[in-house]
Amino acid sequence: MVFYILRRLLFLPLALFGVSLLVFTMIGFLSPYQRLATFINNPERLKGENVDKLISQYGLDDPIFIQYLRWLKNVFRGNLGWSYVGKGPVFEVILERFPYTLELTIFSVIPIIFLGISLGVISALHHNRVVDHALRIFAVVGWSFPDFVFGLMVLMVFYSALGWFPPGNLSIWAETVVKSPVFRHITGMLTFDALLNGRLDIFWDALRHLLGPIFTLTYVELAFILRITRSSMLEVLQRDYVRTARAKGLSEKVVINKHARRNALIPVATVSGQTVVGLLAGTVIVETIFNRTGLGSFMALAAQQLDYASIMGGTLFFGLILILGNLCVDVSYAFIDPRVRLE
Amino acid sequence: MLQKNLLEVRDLRVYFYSDEKRELKAVDGVSFSVGKGETLALVGESGCGKSVTSMAILRLVDSKGKITGGEVIFDGQNLLLLPESRMREIRGKDIAMIFQEPASALNPVYTIGEQILEAIMLHQKLSPSRAKEVALEMLRLVGIPEPEKRLNEYPHELSGGMKQRAMIAMALSCRPQLLIADEPTTSLDVTIQAQILELIRELQKKLGMALILITHDLGIVADMAERVVVMYAGKVVEEGNRFEIFKNPFHPYTVGLLRSIPRLDVERKKLDTIPGVVPEPSSFPVGCRFRGRCNFETGECVQEPPRTSLSNTHAVYCHHWEKVRDSNAEVLKECRAQ
After folding, report:
1. Surface-to-core class of residue A217, CB atoms within 10 Å of its CB (0-12 exposed, 13-18 middle, 19+ buried)
2. Could you tell me the end-to-end alpha-carbon distance of chain A, in angstroms, rounded to an integer?
3. Under a CB-based contact definition with an 8 Å cutoff, are residues B29 and B215 in contact?
4. What contacts A115, CB < 8 A, 6 or more positions away?
5. Left (φ > 0), alpha (ψ -120 to 50) or beta: where does B45 sit?
6. B contacts of A339 (beta carbons < 8 Å)
7. CA distance B217 to B196
8. CB atoms within 10 A of CB B313
9. Tens-digit pLDDT profile for chain A (343 aa)?
10. CA of A263: which chain B residue's CA is closest?
């Protein structure tokens, strides 16, 4: 198992190299002039022969692979470049923004997985009866909603009409407290830091701001887990070992909760792992709609502004998360399913 | 007579309801009995209702099926009338079951030990350490080498034969009075088959339990069973002790089954087969259900065939059993002549 993990980790740089190459090639499609524009904040300087001078000064007319190697050299020195959007070194900006996204993921994954699994099991046990149909319609609707549509609806109802879930990360009063020197930043995640600082009022305020996005992500993603659990459970309930368990004289509760569910959850674990990884790297839309600071909204902004140092850095970071996340999922199989051997 | 029988199934009916609300009479008026310590074979082609019958005894027919009539008297009480909680106490304790595919009948995510211990702890009030001793004892009894090690292994780490042995150990761990073995060797290699059957026979003697052996393999029946019930399309067509069934089969279906086994002592160019297939439960013919495939069919066969008792143990459900008897005698004469 350790050997398997090490071998997978050895491939990590290779995969990241591939990711960076891909992104850099895409950036290479832009002309030197277009890319120069991203370096310059004062339009006055983009005039006449100044442009060509600047292009050669930044080496933007060099062959693309030379530019790539130059970028790579910097990466190895730990320098991902300067983020114009984040107004700081890319690496620092990512580290600062990531906890917000992580926080949202943690809070969303709990209801997604628990509700998804329990509703899926309930649905399977009521196969083709009213409860099952109702849950399936509920799931299909959630599954079919694009998150930006559902997010906007949540915003409309729960913020605009009811005023319950405000957008953003914090209220203004809380923000001043958080930015003051007395508030210690330990995890970078607002709710946890508020608890560690003993500020329940700030915890509640941060949580309130999280509810909208959590609600949106839960409904949209829950459907997936529910459907997988349902079909997996239905399949498992037909298996011979469920019959064996019944023939042993076990109660229906034990048969379902012990013998059937444990087996039914094997495919669900895969999907759940992918959901977590997907959320970490894919809250772009929800963060943008709810106007939250986070890695997703940062990346969206960087892409709009053609901040290519941020795009490259962010993409590498997402790549890293994806690869490590998938590794975790694969390793977890070995614990869930005794038939899986990692070699 | 009634006292002697451990299990008596009377006029059992299990109907399945398909989506179009049609009744499928998978088991239709089946009766038989098993005495204490006796071996009864339930024989028939796939789809004849033998497995459904056995599941109905334990009241484990799946949700689309319903036991619509009859009685299952076990040890003096009608199992079909017991509350579910009482029924659960009987399952696995008094009546245990082993299945065709040991590979899929054992839960892949729990160890052999966990699965055997579960049955022991459920039905016998034993301390965990004592229960473990019982489990080890059972594994030794069924001839699994290194039982301590096997206890912690998962089903996929055992071979097919070993899995079936573990399954038997699990089924017998509470010393049931009746074991229902549903095609216990069908999925195993021939050599392993013989070992498993030998093991079942040995344990049956040792524990004094009755056995219902469900099979389509007449070789196994000849080897193991004292009494035989032949089923076709959800009904019993003939029953008798082993000698009666093998020597004097009076139902055309039984005769067909017997003719379709290869034999070394009779020279034949081609193996006999029964023409056609078992009809779907939705299109069982009225009257004798074998009539579409039968050489002896006459107009009379649309009537329900009567039960004819030929001895204390031998009974046949056929309008033309006498003609079958005569034809058997002719075949025998021909064989002797050759």
Report:
1. buried
2. 6
3. no
4. A218, A222, A226
5. beta
6. 108, 154, 156
7. 15
8. 16
9. 888 888 888 888 888 888 888 888 877 777 777 777 666 666 666 666 777 777 777 777 778 888 888 888 888 887 877 887 888 888 889 988 899 999 999 999 999 999 999 999 999 999 889 999 999 998 888 888 888 888 889 888 988 889 888 888 888 888 888 788 888 888 888 888 888 888 888 888 889 889 989 998 898 888 889 999 999 999 999 899 999 999 999 999 999 999 999 999 999 988 888 888 888 876 888 888 888 888 888 888 888 887 878 888 888 888 888 888 888 888 888 888 888 877 7
10. B109
Q: Which residues contact B251 (CB under 8 A, 6 or more apart)?
A: B230, B237, B238, B290, B316, B317, B318, B321, B324
**pTM for the complete prediction?**
0.81
**Two tokens at B49?**
């209702």
Structure tokens at B263: 């034999």
Interval B22-63: pLDDT, tens: 788 888 889 999 999 999 999 988 878 888 999 999 999 887
Amino acid at A225: I
- Domains in chain A: ranges and CATH: 2-83 (no CATH), 94-304 (1.10.3720.10)
* A residues 254-313 closer than 8 Å to B (CB): 259, 262-263, 266
Contact present, B293 and B275 (Cβ < 8 Å): yes
Tell whether A129 is within 8 A of chain B (Cβ): no
DSSP 8-state symbol, B113:
H
Q: Which two tokens stand for residue A53?
A: 């001078």
Residues of B whose CB is below 8 A from A245: 107
Give the integer Cα–Cα distance in Å for B272 and B295.
13
Cβ count near B297 (within 10 Å): 16
